[in-house]
Automatic annotation (TrEMBL):
Protein name: Acyl-CoA desaturase
Keywords linked to the UniProt accession: Membrane, Transmembrane, Transmembrane helix
Listed InterPro entries: FA_desaturase_dom (IPR005804), Fatty_acid_desaturase (IPR012171)
Organism of this sequence: Actinacidiphila epipremni
One Pfam family it belongs to: FA_desaturase
Protein origin, superkingdom: Bacteria
Domain Fatty acid desaturase: 68-326
Keyword Membrane: yes
Record-annotated membrane-spanning stretches: 40-63, 69-87, 107-124, 172-189, 201-222
Length: 347
């Protein structure tokens, strides 16, 4: 069966005495009704996003039919709306949208596999492990050695071209994100081998349908040069947008050492960074700018995260747990500063 994100309440799995730090906050949040689902919100937001996507692709057909290169301008709204689909899939994976796991699974498969070519099974397995142990080397796949590295110990092991990447990874970070849209598709197909037979059939069929449908639409609507250019630009902007949404969340924050016994509150708050929000930031970052609240309450519906923020911040002040929040540009500066410092031994 496909992996689903854990939705057991954190207090049920927080070890030892530290559970008392989180339990009062959980009670406050529950009494405030912030864990209740917002089905109406998601019905409207999903419908609006799908209609907007349909309008953009209709415009691609209308503008591109004559071979105009102006069609490339539509890659930007297509990328933004694709990221919105990704945020919906993320929320469905966390069981935020519907009461039924099956319904959430269908929503995740539709928005991830079919609309984006990004496997729900691959994403939820990876994201599950990240939420369980954020920023913990050896447990969180987001800080494993890859194109980028996150600790000096990882950096000094790099050789060849990988060493060059690490040496300059802070400067190369945003350009590398332009490849992320394609990388997500490749990783999703590669992950099919991990799934059971039924999972491979369902997810693989939807991923294949996405690739065929996407290629057929572009090649039917546009001349070949414009079709290739549009696909490249769409994926580049999509990867950049998603990367910019996720980059501020944990990079440069605390990284637990092996053997650290942090409970749920400290494990999630000390490793996460909030980005101060406004309607535009909330929209572009998909609510993930309230990363602390999201990590403390993964099943909390996205529109409630902003309302939970003052409750969480006040509770952290009461128990003496640092609560990190900054502006959008400063969050990128902190993340890039960490990546630059990690590569310092190679310079």
């Amino acid at each position: 069966m496909a992996t689903v994100l854990t939705t057991v309440e954190p207090s049920e799995r927080a070890p030892g005495g530290e559970a008392s730090e989180f339990t009062p906050l959980l009670r406050i949040v529950r009494r405030s009704g912030l864990l209740r689902r917002r089905r109406g919100h998601y019905v409207v937001s999903i419908a609006v996003n799908l209609l907007a996507l349909a309008a953009v692709w209709a415009a691609v057909v209308a503008v591109g039919g004559g071979g105009s290169w102006w069609v490339l301008a539509l890659a930007l709204p297509a990328a933004v709306l694709s990221a919105r689909s990704g945020f919906v899939g993320h929320d469905a994976g966390h069981q935020q949208i519907a009461a039924s796991r099956r319904t959430n699974r269908v929503i995740a498969l539709f928005h991830g596999n079919l609309l984006l070519g990004m496997g729900a099974g691959w994403w939820t397995d990876k994201h599950n492990r990240h939420h369980a142990n954020p920023n913990h080397v050896g447990k969180d796949p987001d800080v494993e050695v890859g194109a980028l590295v996150w600790t000096r110990a990882q950096a000094v092991e790099r050789q060849g071209f990988a060493r060059f990447l690490t040496k300059h990874q802070a400067r190369l970070f945003f350009p590398m994100l332009l490849l992320e849209g394609l990388a997500l598709k490749v990783a999703s197909f590669q992950d099919l081998r991990r799934l059971d037979r039924r999972g491979r059939l369902v997810e693989g069929s939807l991923l294949t349908a996405h690739v065929i449908g996407y290629a057929a639409l572009l090649l039917t609507a546009l001349p070949l040069p414009q079709a290739v250019a549009f696909a490249a630009l769409h994926h580049a902007l999509f990867g950049l947008h998603l990367g910019c949404a996720f980059a501020p969340n944990h990079k440069g924050m605390e990284m637990p050492e092996e053997g650290a016994r942090w409970g749920h509150l400290r494990r999630q708050v000390l490793t996460s960074r909030n980005v101060r929000g406004n309607p535009v930031v909330d929209f572009l970052l998909g609510g993930l700018n309230y990363q602390i609240e999201h990590h403390l309450f993964p099943s909390m519906p996205r529109p409630h995260l902003r309302r939970a923020r003052p409750l969480v911040r006040a509770h952290c002040a009461r128990v003496g747990v640092p609560y990190t929040e900054t502006g959008l540009l400063d969050s990128y500066a902190q993340a890039l500063g960490h990546m630059h410092a990690v590569g310092a031994p190679l310079r």
